[in-house]
Amino acid sequence: MNPPHDDVLIIGGGAIGLATALALLDAGRGVRILEAGAVGGGASHGNCGTITPSHAPPLAAPGVVAQALRWMFTPDAPLYLKPRIDPALWHWLLRFAARCNPRDWRQSTQARAALLNDARARLADWVGRYGLQCEFEEEGLDYVFRDPRRFQQYMDESVVLKTFGIATQVFGGTDYEREEPAMLPGVAGAIRFPGDARLRPDRYVAELARVVRERGGVIEEQCRVDRLEPTPDGVRLATSQGERKGGDAVIALGAWTPAFARRLGIRAPIQPGKGYSITYSRPARVPRHPMVLKDRSVCVTVWGSGFRLGSTMEFSGHDDTLNATRLAALERGAREFLREPVGAEVHERWCGWRPMTWDDLPLLGRAPGQRKVWIAAGHGMLGISMSTATGQLMADLMTGRPPAFDPSPYRPERFA
Ligand SMILES: Cc1cc2nc3c(=O)[nH]c(=O)nc-3n(C[C@H](O)[C@H](O)[C@H](O)COP(=O)(O)OP(=O)(O)OC[C@H]3O[C@@H](n4cnc5c(N)ncnc54)[C@H](O)[C@@H]3O)c2cc1C
């Protein structure tokens, strides 16, 4: 039997592969997604589900290197680097460190804001248009501080954010405690980002998959792609379920991208930035808005169906063990801020790999040196927030339509 021949083969069924598939279907293209595990089972599963134009500033900021070095030997710090010999990691870190200056910070912030702002508006549209049942609420997000110095530092940053179209509202500590009865006393202040939103990410990816299938897209689960070969009229893939052929291929493999791309001679310097979450039944007294407990970098998201504490950033390679110390740090952080920091029942303890590039921008576009191979990967801490804009941008680039914003900052060639 001949292998199926599809229009576009999408390799990887996370939020990015799914959103790209949906936008391509809408543009009249045919798609087949090939996913090694269960659809949405990678980083897109247990993340915090916040939709955050507020997070436009990149991780590489002035002062971060000194902070990271201080944290390096603190196993429960929000940012942790497991000391080890790994040339790709050290090269990545050096490039990351070189970007911790005001000029590069501004350049990444601007490019991230363009993608995030487009994605935020487009998400509301998709939720309505496709009827995505994913507990999406446009309720903003709060940064909460107990440390007055840190609060002041972020107030200064929020002034800069306004120039990128990101609105903020500032609260003094007592005002915020009155506003949010879920907090323990001792809040120094809070910054609200009214333009942010939240959703339940496992529901979001399941709903994207539903709509992709309803519109004629094919999703093959438990189908690992081992090799990609360009052919005169497209691409051929060797998969764990046999050969697949297509006109174009999109590599949407998140943190798994570098090894796969390397076999094609494509450089995609993405490090897995491991993060954790714990999902509980919903406590009686929960915050009214999703929030980041900034002094401890713990994100709190509340849905009708549950309550999640998440975050921490660990550079420890492709290690998928659940580290009890780092999980405990999430609960410890929450206990400092919240009257009811955990729910009665634990539903899931989870970790996932954020696909981190050193400039904190994804790779979006045609793969260098390839005619029919495209990349959509490297969304770091913001792949859910950026998913709709990424899907639309990929579909526009692949169908030759003018994109909604300048795609040049995300060109994969910048790493070639
Ligand atoms: C703790 C934590 C909290 C986060 N919170 C947020 C948040 O609040 N908001 C936000 O916007 N982002 C958040 N993120 C980041 C977000 O989760 C990621 O950026 C996003 O999920 C990346 O999506 P993706 O589709 O690129 O990758 P993934 O979802 O990882 O998808 C890649 C897929 O490729 C598959 N795959 C791998 N190898 C192969 C192969 N050879 N063949 C076929 N398939 C393969 C994998 O099984 C996987 O399903 C968070 C991440 C973490 C870890």
UniProtKB/TrEMBL annotation:
Domain of life (superkingdom): Bacteria
Keyword vocabulary terms for this entry: Oxidoreductase
Keyword field contains Oxidoreductase: yes
Pfam family, one: DAO
Domain FAD dependent oxidoreductase: 7-397
Name by which UniProt lists this protein: FAD-dependent oxidoreductase
Lineage of source species: Bacteria, Pseudomonadati, Pseudomonadota, Gammaproteobacteria, Lysobacterales
